[in-house]
Design goal:
- With about 210 residues, the chain is an alpha+beta fold.
- It is about 25% helix and about 25% strand.
- It contains 4 helices and 14 strands.
- A hairpin with a 4-residue loop joins β6 and β7.
């Protein structure tokens, strides 16, 4: 299952490299790892060794794979812009890579992305333009399956284990009635006792995302 998604992301990198970067970006390791506070990241250092070659990494968050394919690919393209800027010596970020400046906005918007401003991370809020969506669709970059790392789901109280006749019966922890919501832009969080929809004004009305406790 994860292999299919990995192949989709690697193909997405190749397509976006051709369409928006003139195939200038060297091969890179694409990973899917837990990263609940952000949609993805690019490693400045060459953290992977592949045979005798060192490579950078683009990570796509396992907790945010359930977005539409064009949004997942816009995250990929966002990180590819960072890669492009590193190669060309463009200083697109500050504050230890957290704050995205107008250089990043300029380079990202050249590549079909719509960039919004958020107080603590600058011009980082990323959405796909209609042009970008059409590119994703025309190349058939569709999600092979619905896949997302939601976290553990507590076992209901009274579920029996063992041989199915009551042997090995365990009492599971009662599921909490509270929900935790995290801003995917800045990482701010809060808890609520019911499902709600909240926008973070400080981050240009980014929607808070519910995460498992």
């Amino acid at each position: 299952m994860l292999k299919d998604y990995q192949e989709l992301l690697e193909r997405g990198f190749a397509v976006l490299n051709e369409v928006y970067f003139n195939n200038e970006l060297p091969p890179i390791v694409v990973s899917i790892m837990s990263s609940p506070k952000t949609n993805g990241h690019f490693t400045i250092g060459k953290v992977w060794r592949v045979e005798n070659e060192r490579m950078n990494e683009i990570n796509v968050s396992a907790q945010h794979l359930d977005r539409p394919a064009e949004n997942v690919m816009s995250t990929m393209c966002h990180e590819m812009v960072h890669y492009y800027c590193q190669i060309h010596g463009l200083h697109e970020v500050s504050q230890n890579g957290r704050y995205h400046n107008k250089i990043f906005k300029r380079e990202a918007e050249k590549r079909g992305l719509v960039i919004g401003y958020a107080k603590y991370i600058g011009y980082s809020v990323t959405e796909p333009s209609e042009e970008f969506k059409n590119i994703i669709k025309s190349y058939g970059l569709e999600k092979p399956i619905e896949l997302n790392r939601d976290g553990e789901i507590p076992v209901p109280i009274g579920v029996k284990g063992g041989n199915g006749n009551g042997d090995g019966n365990t009492t599971a922890k009662k599921k909490s009635s509270t929900r935790k919501y995290v801003c995917p832009a800045c990482g701010a969080s809060f808890r609520a006792t019911r499902d709600i929809n909240v926008l973070h004004e400080d981050c240009n009305n980014v929607k808070f995302v519910k995460v498992e406790l």
